[in-house]
Design brief:
The protein is mainly beta and about 725 residues long. About 5% of the residues lie in helices and about 55% in strands. The protein contains 5 helices and 39 strands. The longest helix has 17 residues, at about 1-20. It is globular, with a radius of gyration of 31 Å.
């Protein structure tokens, strides 16, 4: 028995002699000790946890080179590798882990509408349920700060920029003609149906280096990856009808939507009375389809849309005794295909292409204009996430634009114009997260235009700092280039790209379903196009001597918690801008820029009545116009714009909805501007006429029926 005791004591002493002591202390970057950190040797049971002083100590029988691991929730895992004999007296510093849900985000200049984005201030549902928007996503976006109300256009005017300075993309690919064709002083609508998209990102400035050829703004639309269920949507409206269907085969799906619009019945009941006479009210037929195929590590999407429209209208003109006839037949076809693949080791590949063909057959009095634009966009990009702190996004893209136009007058004289441009661009951008409170985005974009024979380089930078759990500050700077519009290039291809520089300072707070956002900005315009005639014509002299600036303040507030069933947001924009471009004789505020814009949007669900009621109010201060009877240039302003709109959606059953909408319910007599005579009368005075909307108010009634297996889905999010 004594011999057995001696053997046990001997083995214990040998074991103690063979053990190696491992020790150290763990702190954060501020040298604060961290308690509860798990410390262990990889692949063994040997380890310990740090005490309140951050200290740890344990023994091991392992030999040679080992890996010591220190891990704790909310911190990045730390590794020490070496011979166990050196793993003592260690000083380990843990870095805070980047939390994708609560960490800082880069938001300067961008409004997002998507259910999963922590930076979202709107949901996709909001885009299409705003009173007065009539289901048009562009009209809904005009309630956000940074936009200007230009009632006679219907397009996006952002921070002192023209409508042409905003570009629209679907799944990262350019939409070359995103708006329906229309006549002079008659607002247009977007071609794209909102129900096909899962989210929207609206950048009012300082956007990513991935996007170019837009001086002011980028609007990104992302189609749905996979629909929730099969369904059929039917709509009967006072201005037409629509029919849509979604079919799902496992990981594949197809959504089809068709729409027919005809304003003739509406015009017969409520005729326009503001200086217009319809020979053929606006009529159009359009359709869209999205095919999706999901794979284990990839997704393929094919989007296509077409539209054909026709209108014939007589409009008052101060320079003619009789009304001026204007007619237009437009056809548009658009294809968009993209594929995204997720590789191992955090690599992502994206590739895609879009093609557009747009034709117009225009008649003005006895003159005809036929034009055609064929354009394409191809893109490839790669993204690599090296760590959760550092990622790189880079790629290349190519644009082809082929435009031709033929003008003919009554004597059969014809004049042909047009151009072809190949534009190639490369871009690279990196996101660097130093901590959950500080992040940096650095990028650059290079472009070459074969038509202009010019190379541009655009640096972009965004910095964000999170000052507390719910709020943060952001700053963005970037240079942005855009080729002159086709109105100029078809006459003169010797111009240079136009340029603007953005400086943006942003503060945003999101807490308890309440969002507050304030943003100041400055834009410096250079190389804008100028010409020396009343309108851009073939014999004008074109230069890039134009310049200008735009500065302002945007404020946004949203609250959908304080009052039960009530969701509302308010936005205000202050804009100070001047330009010396086009045919301006001096620097002046352009006629599309109002100094003050205000929007209030409310949505209230009445449970007892099974109804959603919406009210929107839009205000814009007077816009400048030039009065040739005074020596000052663009010194006078129209009266303020006011619009109070209302909509009501009543659920007859869960899947049947009766919808009523009234735009400008108070029939306020808004003024878009004035047209002055080309020559003075006998007294030397230039007469004028008031340019007003074709109708003060617009009424809409519709019945919408959804057929699906779950019998709960409806079209409320499409109205």
């Amino acid at each position: 028995m004594k011999h057995l005791q001696y053997i046990i004591i001997f083995l214990i002493s040998i074991s103690s002699f063979c053990q190696t002591k491992i020790s150290g202390i763990v702190t954060d970057k501020k040298n604060t000790p961290l308690a509860g950190v798990n410390i262990y040797l990889e692949g063994t049971y040997d380890g310990a946890s740090t005490n309140e002083k951050g200290e740890f100590y344990f023994e091991t029988t392992e030999k040679n080179t080992q890996t010591l691991i220190a891990s704790m929730m909310s911190y990045e895992t730390h590794y020490e590798m070496g011979d166990v004999s050196y793993l003592k007296g260690l000083k380990i510093i843990l870095r805070e882990a980047i939390n994708e849900l609560t960490g800082v985000t880069l938001t300067a200049g961008t409004f997002e509408a998507g259910g999963t984005s922590k930076a979202s201030v709107l949901k996709p549902l909001d885009i299409v349920t705003t009173a007065g928007a009539a289901g048009d996503f562009v009209a809904a976006l005009q309630t956000l700060p940074g936009t200007s109300t230009v009632n006679e256009s219907g397009r996006l005017f952002v921070r002192g920029g023209t409508a042409g300075e905003t570009q629209i993309f679907v799944d990262g690919l350019r939409v070359f003609q995103p708006f329906l064709a229309t006549g002079n002083n008659i607002p247009t609508r977007g071609r794209l149906s909102p129900f096909l998209f899962k989210g929207i990102s609206f950048s009012t400035g300082g956007y990513s280096a991935e996007y170019g050829q837009a001086l002011s703004s980028v609007l990104q639309l992302n189609t749905t990856d996979l629909p929730d269920e099969e369904k059929t949507d039917l709509g009967i409206m006072s201005v037409g009808g629509n029919l849509g269907h979604t079919k799902i085969w496992g990981n594949k799906s197809l959504s089809v939507n068709t729409s027919y619009l005809n304003l003739a019945p509406y015009e017969s009941l409520i005729p326009s009375n503001q200086g217009v006479s319809w020979n053929k009210p606006y009529e159009s037929i359009s359709g869209e389809a999205v095919y999706r195929s999901n794979y284990d590590k990839g997704i393929f999407k094919l989007y296509t849309g077409f539209s054909k429209s026709d209108l014939d209208i007589d409009q008052e003109d101060i320079n003619y005794e009789d009304f001026i006839n204007f007619k237009n037949k437009n056809s548009n076809l658009y294809f968009n295909a993209s594929y995204k693949h997720f590789y191992d080791k955090e690599w992502t590949l994206y590739t895609g292409a879009s093609v557009s063909v747009d034709k117009n057959d225009i008649g003005i009095i006895t003159n005809t204009i036929e034009n055609k634009e064929t354009a394409s966009h191809t893109k490839i990009k790669l993204k690599k996430s090296f760590t959760n702190r550092f990622s790189l996004n880079f790629g290349a893209e190519h644009f082809i634009s082929d435009f031709s136009e033929t003008f003919k007058d009554a004597s059969n004289f014809s004049f042909d114009t047009g151009y072809t441009d190949n534009l190639t661009a490369t871009f690279a951008e990196t996101d660097i997260f130093f901590s959950n409170k500080f992040a940096l985005k650095l990028g650059a974009r290079a472009e070459y235009s074969s038509l202009l024979n010019n190379v541009t380089l655009s640096p972009r930078v965004t910095v964000a700092h999170k000052n507390n759990e719910h709020s943060q500050f952001s700053f963005a700077y970037g240079d942005f280039y855009q080729n002159p519009s086709r109105d100029y290039l078809k006459f003169d291809a010797g111009l240079k790209p136009q340029k603007t520089s953005h400086y943006i300072l942003n503060y945003q707070s999101i807490k308890n379903k309440k969002t507050f956002r304030i943003e100041a900005y400055y834009k410096d315009y250079k190389s804008l196009v100028k010409y020396n005639t009343e309108l851009p014509v073939f014999d004008a002299e074109y230069t890039n001597f134009g310049k200008g600036y735009a500065t302002g303040l945007d404020i946004f507030w949203r609250d959908n918690k304080s009052i039960k069933n009530l969701d509302y947001w308010a936005s205000y924009s202050y804009l100070d801008t001047k330009r010396n471009d086009r045919n301006f004789r001096e620097s002046a505020t352009p006629n599309f820029a109002a100094k003050h814009n205000l929007s209030l949007v409310t949505k209230y669900f009445i449970e007892d009545l099974r109804s959603q009621v919406g009210v929107s109010y839009n205000y814009a201060s007077g816009r400048p116009y030039d009065n040739p009877n005074t020596p000052e240039f663009f010194a006078e302003k129209t009266k303020s714009y006011n619009n109070l709109s209302f909509n009501w959606a009543y659920l007859i059953t869960q899947q049947k909805i009766l919808f009523l909408s009234i735009n400008n319910i108070a029939s306020i007599n808004n003024i878009n501007g004035y047209q002055y005579a080309n020559t003075p009368d006998a007294t030397g005075n230039f007469n004028r006429r008031t340019i007003r909307p074709t109708a003060d108010s617009f009424f809409f009634v519709g019945f919408f029926w959804t057929i699906s297996k779950n019998k709960t889905t409806n079209q409320l999010d499409n109205l």
